[in-house]
Structures are given as C-alpha cells and as structure tokens.
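Appendix B: complex inputs.
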Amino acid sequence: MAVISAALALAARGAGEFYGFLLAKEMKAQAGARFRTAYGTLYKTLDRMQRAGLLTSRWEDPAIAESEGRPRRRLYILTSEGERAYRQAIQPQLTPRLVERGGAS
Amino acid sequence: MSLPRHLPQVATRLWVRLYTAGLPAEATTSRRAEVDSDLYERSVETPSLLEDLYCLIAGIPDDLVWRASQISPTLVLAQGLTLAVFVGAITAFLTGHMLNAFGFWPYLAAIPAVFAAGVVAWLLTRTEKEEVVQTSTESPRTHVVYQRIVSGSAFLAPPLALAGILMIGFDYHPQEDNSDIVRLAADHQARFAGGYVLYAVSLTLLAIAVMQVSALARGAGSHIAGAIVPGLFLLSTAFILVGGHGLQGVALALVTQAGLDAQAYYLEASNDSGVAFAAFIAGIVAGLSLLALASAVWRTHLLGGVSRIAVSSALVLLGVVFGLTSGWTVTIGTVLIPVFTAIAFYPFAWRDLSSRNASHSVSGGVAAASNA
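Resulting structure:
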C-alpha cells in the first residue's frame, strides 16, 4: 500500500514514471520515517508488484542517462490494476467505520 | 568522498554482486544496474552514513528471499537445508572450543543475545512488510484470527529459548569446582555443545518460520516463503526436540539411576543429543518424502472445497499431540512433529509455488505484497 500511495502522490505531481530512489524518498516523506526503505525490501516489493501486474517498468534511454552523466534508471508506471487494487485494499478499512456509524445512529 | 561515507556503497555493491551471483543473466544485470542507479542517486543527495548502512543491512533478508525467488524452489529448499546443517556444524565446532576455553559462561552470556535475536527476527519478519494489497478469496475474519494465533506464538520463542538455556545453566555453580563438567564438555564438544546451541538457535528459526507462515496465511503472495517455510518448520521443530529430548533423557537418568554423578549426567546428555540429532536427520528425510506425497495429493484436488486453514490447523494439532504424547522413543517424537507440520503447511507452500510464474489477476483474488 505504501508503494502505491507514494506512486499516486508522485503521479499527482506530474511524475507518471518513477524510479526506485524517487519512490523511496516519497515513501519516507509520507511515513515521516527516519530512514529510507532498504534496498532489498524496496526492489523485492517492486519486483513482486510488477509480477502481479500492479506496475510495469522500462529501462531509461541510455542516451538520456549518458547526457546527464549518471547510470540508467529503471522507470516504473502504476497500472490501472494497481490503482484498482489500492482502492480495494483501502475499502475494508473504511467499511467497518461506516457500518459502525450507521449502526450507532 | 571520505572512506566512512564510501564504505556502505562499496559494501552494498559487493553484497549485490554476491547475492546475484549465479542467477540468470537478466535478473543479475537488472538488479545490479538498479542498485547502482540507486546508489548514485543517493550519493548526490545529502549523505548519511547511518541511513546507507540501514538500507544495506535491513534489506538483506529481502535480498535473500528475492534471490531464492529467482531459482527453482527445490534448489532453494536443498540449499536452505544444506546451509542449516552447515551452520549447525560450524556452530557446534565453535561453541565446543568456547566451552573448552571459557566453560559455561558463553551459554549464560548468550541469554540476552538469544532474546535479542528473537526480537530482531520478529521485527524483520513482521507482517507489515507483507501487507496485502488485494483481498483474498478466503474469509478475512478467519485470516485475522489465524494470523493472530500464529503471530502470538512467535512471542513464545525468545522466552522458551531463555528457559532452555537457564535449564542448562542451572547445573553450573560458579562457587563450586566445575572442572569435571568443563572437561567433559570439552571432550564431547560437537555433540554436547552442538545439541544445546542448536536448541537455542532453533527457537529463533521457529519465530521466523511462524511469522512467514503468518504472512502466507494472510494471503501475501510471497513466492519463496512457501518453499522455505516447510523446511524451516522441519528444522526448527526437530531442533527443539533435540534439546527437549536431551533434557528429558537427563531427567530420566537422574531419577532412575542411583548414585549418578556429574560425569554420567553430562555423558547422558551428550549421548541423547547425538541420538536425537540422528533422528532429526531422519525427520528431514521423512518430511521431504511426505512433502512430495502431499504435493501429489494437493495437485489432484483431493482436498478441494475444504478450508486449507482448517485442514492445516487440524494437522498441526494432531501432529503436536501425537508427537508429544507418543513418548515411546526419541525417534518417533522427533520425526512425527516435523512430518505433520510439513504436511500441514504444504497447502500454503503449494499455492505459493504454483503462482510462481503465473500471471496474477486482481479479479481472481490473488494476493500481492506491496508495502515496504
């Protein structure tokens, strides 16, 4: 959930494609954490999400990376399935409260 | 760039090369390039030595799980078992020498370490990492109850390890002459020290295994955990029984043999550990054979329609009750609990393995993990 939430926030700011480091920074900011997510945790999660169809990825054009004098980035995009899964996941967290409120009234 | 600042980056690159070694070229190249890019991005930001170290160390368990997901589950299981036996042997050797040099003090000193290891294991494997994005087809309420039961069990591991070590340390009296005990321990290093150290280590393994099972029970789509969990359970339960039966044998010997002295006491303990270790190996072999059988049963859907959690819970309970009450021989108890546990958790493993290369679908209710 944290990954998708961060990806959605980045997309809202115009970064439709994101790379690992950028995502880790956003997740850290959202969670108010002291450290960024560990390499292993982050890339394993991205790998799984990609296999599950929640993300797709492509490698950046080498010419762009070369012109900026840095290694190539792997760019990820949140799929519509990823967005739908996120909404499904947060739905159960909302439902009990709504039911509770409905029952109390 | 200063040396301390540079060190985590060098260590990270070395570690990435190590855990990607021998994998398919695509996976290796991709992971190395991705981490290289990340390291570069971090290097141009405000440096933080502590954060860089954290990012390396905290991700190691996930790196190993990722590596395991890139290769055959059978190979993973074989590698895991080999590693466990290898680590056990090394541990036995080293602690034997420690006993020789320092007597029982390393054991007593290990109490806080084992406790801390249990806590760390729990923290590293806590289920927030495996937060489920998608809902499972099985009842969420059942999952929650089951998850709480197995997660709660993990908390028992450190206190149990503490109790085990205290039981051993109880017979060591700092104010008295313990030279006989220390000498005997030194003469029977591998069996004597190995049996009890493995006992302590096993409880940490058990905590990890329980949390992994918890993640699977919640429907997290962790591919390789399904392959590792039965093996871990096999090892951990067998290890526990090595220690448990060893202590039981000691108690029995003390009650039934008149005039038993300290030498016989510890010889009995070390012999029992040796027998139980052999039984533990037999348990692994039997457990793996039955895993294969359970696989065949599961694939033919003979248990279709029956709740996996209900079947697994019943089998675990049956195995534990049967194993604990058999009491006829050390072997029966040592073999049966891992066997029943392995069978019980195979459904989770199979579900996991069968989804390895399948295309997951949201509408199909296949769970995926995403939360870091």
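Residues 82 and 88 of chain A are 10 Å apart (CA to CA).
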